[in-house]
Write a structure and sequence with these properties.
Length: 279
Amino acid sequence: MPSKKQKKIAAINDFSGFGRCSLTVSIPIISAAGIQCCPLPTAILSNHTGYNDYYFDDYTDRMKPYYKKWEKLGLHFDAIYSGFLGSERQIGIVTDFIEKFSDEETIIIIDPVMGDNGRMYDTLTGELCRSLKKLTAHADILTPNVTEACILTDTPYTSAPDESTLNEICEKLLSYGCKNVVITGIVTDNKIGNLICRTSGEKTLVTSPLIGSSRAGTGDVFASVLAADTVNGMSLEDSVRRAADFVSKAILLSDDQQLPSQDGLCFELILGDMIPPIQ
């Protein structure tokens, strides 16, 4: 009788103690999906940077010694999911990690955390941006929002890019070497869309109603659901659709709870949606 081995995702991201983003989102969502989530911190924060004040501890110098112990254990991951990276050095560290802990079966998900609503994050420099472009070549799935897609392709930002502009952005992103791109947060006609672009040239726009308020951590929730569902064997289109539905449901719950937008998504109340049926 063949053994049933639980799947593992290495989640490379910052740890923010308050504000529902990055690892504090990925760990519960991926775990609820029946997958072991193995965090590799890039930074430790008291709360995310959307608040006026925060404690920040750069974890760059500790990342390699941390995962060297995993290397000694001979660990292998079914997926590697990379999120916030705060320096050019961390790009090299993540590239090394991918080379050491993946094989042809490992799914590489890269969420290039660079900015939102047309504004670049303070941590983004020209060198970091250029290095992130190189990192995208490793991605089986790249998940930039509209702002990040524009930054990566040197495209002037617009909150609602037309079809021609989106096609040009997709072609540029795919030319960097990634296999699939999912551009998130495309707002058109009271709808929010996520555009799937494949190296085959096929494009699929998955839309849902534009509801509720804009909230911190939405991209982290989306990417975490997408990573978990893809590793569990769901198609990319179905994974994107379910991630979008999960985010929409969490936004409505968060608004109902009257949570400040900085406090992120109240996803805890619907974690049960991620639990797969017992085989």
